[in-house]
């Protein structure tokens, strides 16, 4: 089965995908593929807020400089300035669309909405909706999308690949529906908004993390991947080995939370003048060191000194969730550990979201714009989603009006069969082993020896997967194949970076190289013998 050609096909329905769909749909037809599991994706779990220069006491240049410092020399300054300069307008767009941001009720408030401060920021510039900003934004935009006559939503599809014509242009996507029937979605332009690759790791900050699917879809069509080695680990995820993942927002430290070791002592004071508000890579490594030195497997995040009233006011969602897990954060500290949180690398794009493949765009966490450099600063992620989605939509609205006729494409449809129960168990085992390898050897602290072991083990896992009968015709097998290849590319990128910078810390290369350079990879780098 197939659908008529749409002007824009958007794959992924978090903040980036929803924003682009709404911005473009007033002028163009949009098909939005938003799997039901997107309700558990990264956007909806974003707690802290969105960074932008909104207070008269702040400045665009200050936000730029804070971002450049956090990015540790690897940011693209033009991308930083582009993002920061367009931030206030993006926030006003959300306000105009009805996002219920938390007001500032103080008599001397300098801005109508409450602004908090998070790690790396030297000013209060985080606008938020209590401590559930992502959900507030997604819910608001979803209501708008549902009512828009030019947006066709598909929640019944799993995208397996992108369509490409004989001239190399992306022409949409293909996948299977819930009955394992093929579906093609032709489009004049295709936008990936599929999220990052935190699902390559065992411990993450979202219950259903993305596995980098969009990155591999783009790479398979010829797009370039950039800075894959820079995987951000959020310093404070709730420690509960037997329960689901849950992020403890950066805003908890922004409002004055203390990190304590097993002895009940603050340890950040001696490591960085910004203490608990140091950038995430600094805090995550410090926590990891304390965990390695101790016996309890976590550290403590303490906000009891803020008082019950402030805790209930600022962190109602976190308080309620922790209480449901048996922790009253008004009376006891929160056990926390670092967990895979955000992919600073992804599909290389420009300020329009364009990749090097004609007709293919990427926005949000799946993309690498150069904004984050070697370390994403807190709450710059949703800002990036908004700014680049709006920029991409504007560019497409201008471009499509001048495009020529469509070019035909061909697609060989192989049957996709349900996975037998015994094979599902094998796929689950391979997936768990993949995540274990990445968590052990390609995590917060890395070494040449560990990366070599990881690469060898991933090659063996891929060989085992490919030896399984029918794995290339089963949905789970195809997705696992994509995960393994992206993991291999991530390890290759890490092995090639002979320095420690930002999120990437190597015991064999503890110092900076004199000049920071972005890493760029393609599928050709999976060929044996190309790794250096």
TrEMBL record:
Residues 7-382 form the FAD-dependent oxidoreductase 2 FAD-binding domain. The keyword Nucleus does not apply. GO terms for biological process: 'de novo' NAD+ biosynthetic process from L-aspartate. It is an enzyme of class 1 (oxidoreductase). It is found in: Cytoplasm. The active site is at residue 280. GO terms for molecular function: L-aspartate oxidase activity. The keyword Lyase does not apply. Its EC number is 1.4.3.16. Pathway: Cofactor biosynthesis; NAD(+) biosynthesis; iminoaspartate from L-aspartate (oxidase route): step 1/1. NCBIfam families: nadB. Catalyzes the oxidation of L-aspartate to iminoaspartate. Belongs to the FAD-dependent oxidoreductase 2 family. NadB subfamily. This is L-aspartate oxidase.
């Amino acid at each position: 089965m197939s659908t008529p050609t749409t002007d824009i096909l958007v794959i992924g329905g978090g903040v980036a995908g929803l924003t682009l769909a709404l911005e473009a749909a007033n002028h163009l037809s949009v098909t939005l593929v938003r799997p039901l599991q997107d309700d558990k994706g990264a956007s909806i779990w974003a707690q802290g807020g969105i960074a932008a220069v909104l207070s008269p006491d702040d400045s665009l240049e200050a936000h730029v400089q804070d971002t450049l410092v956090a990015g540790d020399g690897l940011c693209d300054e033009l991308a930083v300035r582009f993002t920061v300069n367009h931030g206030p307008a993006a926030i006003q767009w959300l306000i105009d669309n009805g996002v219920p941001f938390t007001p500032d009720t103080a008599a001397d408030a300098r801005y109508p909405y409450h602004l908090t401060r998070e790690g790396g920021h030297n000013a209060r510039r985080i606008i938020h909706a209590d401590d559930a900003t992502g959900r507030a934004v997604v819910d608001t935009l979803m209501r708008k999308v549902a009512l828009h006559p030019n947006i066709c939503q598909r929640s019944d599809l799993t995208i397996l690949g992108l369509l490409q014509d004989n001239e190399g242009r992306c022409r949409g996507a293909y996948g299977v529906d819930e009955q394992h029937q093929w579906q093609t979605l032709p489009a004049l332009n295709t936008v990936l908004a599929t999220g990052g690759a935190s699902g390559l790791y065992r411990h993450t900050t979202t219950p259903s993390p993305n596995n980098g699917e969009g990155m591999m879809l783009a790479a398979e069509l010829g797009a370039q991947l950039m800075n894959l080695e820079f995987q951000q680990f959020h310093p404070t995820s709730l420690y509960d080995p037997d329960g689901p993942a849950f992020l403890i927002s950066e805003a908890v430290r922004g409002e004055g939370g203390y990190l304590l070791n097993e002895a009940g002592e603050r340890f950040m004071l001696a490591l960085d003048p910004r203490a608990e508000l140091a950038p995430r890579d600094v805090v995550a490594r410090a926590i990891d060191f304390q965990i390695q030195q101790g016996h309890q497997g976590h550290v403590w995040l303490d906000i009891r000194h803020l008082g019950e009233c402030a805790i209930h006011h600022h962190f109602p969602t976190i308080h309620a969730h922790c209480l449901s897990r048996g922790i009253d954060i008004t009376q006891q500290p929160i056990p926390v550990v670092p967990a895979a949180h955000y992919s600073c690398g992804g599909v290389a794009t420009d300020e329009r979201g364009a990749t090097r493949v004609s007709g293919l765009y990427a926005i949000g966490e799946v993309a690498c714009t150069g904004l984050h450099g070697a370390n994403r600063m807190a709450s710059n992620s949703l800002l990036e989603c908004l700014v680049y989605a709006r920029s991409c939509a504007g560019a497409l609205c201008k471009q499509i009006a001048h495009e020529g006729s469509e070019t035909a494409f061909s697609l060989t449809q192989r049957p996709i069969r349900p996975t037998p129960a015994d094979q599902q168990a094998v796929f689950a085992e391979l997936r768990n082993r993949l995540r274990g390898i990445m968590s052990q050897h390609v995590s917060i602290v890395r070494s040449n020896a560990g990366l070599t072991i990881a690469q060898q083990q991933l090659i063996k896992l891929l060989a085992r997967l490919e030896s399984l009968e029918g794995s290339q015709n089963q949905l789970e097998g195809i997705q696992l194949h994509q995960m393994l290849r992206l993991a291999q590319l991530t390890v290759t990128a890490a092995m090639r970076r002979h320095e420690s910078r930002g999120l990437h810390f190597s015991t064999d290369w503890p110092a900076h190289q004199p000049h920071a350079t972005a890493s760029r990879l393609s599928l050709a780098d999976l060929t044996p013998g190309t790794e250096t």
